[in-house]
Each structure stands twice: as C-alpha cells, then as structure tokens.
C-alpha cells in the first residue's frame, strides 16, 4: 500500500469517526440511547467499539451545539449507513408521536 492509499484510508476513517460522533451527540441532544438505536439498525452486529468511544467524546446536551436531524441523516447516508438513518428517522417519528399525546 502506497502513501496516497494510506492517506485516503486514514482520512476516510477520521471522517467516519466524525460522523459517528455527530450521531452520538445527536442522540445525547435528543435523549436517545445511541446503542439502542444502533442495535435496532444492526441487530446482527456485536457492540460497535467506535460508537462506544465516540459516546465518551460527547458533551451534555446543555453544552452541545444544535445538530439538526437532517444533518445526522445525511451524514449517515453519506457513509452508507442507511439502516441506521432509517432507525434515527423512526426514533424521530416515535418522539413526535409521543409529543402529540
């Protein structure tokens, strides 16, 4: 593997970690259990170590910047996490339905 390939892979992994952090922080901001949403999207997978690491990087929602749901959905889809994006949308829909009660 040459240096260019290594750089491309490293950049992708760094961007992927950022996407996971955005997802994890969105979950904190909206009082959603990130691990539970991930498990709904990917029930066949074991625990996601990177998600667990990124959850440690989140801040309390009072200290966090606003993250729009659309931003999270687009980031997830950009990295091919369509199942997780669908699970996020279901969570939003469930919260909206619960607010109406």
Compact description:
With 101 residues, the chain is mainly alpha-helical.
Report on the architecture of this protein.
The chain is mainly alpha-helical. 70% of the residues lie in helices and 0% in strands. It is built from five helices and no strands. The chain has helices spanning 3-29, 34-41, 49-56, 69-78, 82-99.
- Rg over CA atoms, rounded to whole Å, is 15 Å
Q: Give helix and strand order, one letter per element, not per position.
A: HHHHH
Structural class: mainly alpha
What is the β-strand count? 0
- Assign a percent range to the helix content: over 70%
Features:
mainly alpha
Reconstruct the topology from this structure:
Layout lengths: L2 H27 L4 H8 L7 H8 L12 H10 L3 H18 L2
Helix pairs in contact: 1-3, 1-4, 2-5, 4-5
């Amino acid at each position: 593997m040459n240096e260019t390939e290594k750089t491309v892979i490293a950049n992708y992994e760094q961007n992927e970690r950022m996407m996971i952090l955005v997802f994890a922080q969105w979950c904190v901001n909206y009082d959603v259990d990130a691990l539970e949403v991930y498990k709904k999207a990917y029930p066949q997978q074991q625990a996601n170590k990177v998600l667990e690491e990124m959850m440690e990087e989140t801040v309390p929602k009072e200290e966090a910047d606003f993250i729009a749901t659309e931003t999270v959905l687009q980031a997830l889809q950009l990295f091919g996490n369509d199942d997780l994006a669908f699970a996020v949308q279901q969570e939003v829909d469930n919260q909206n339905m619960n607010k109406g009660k």
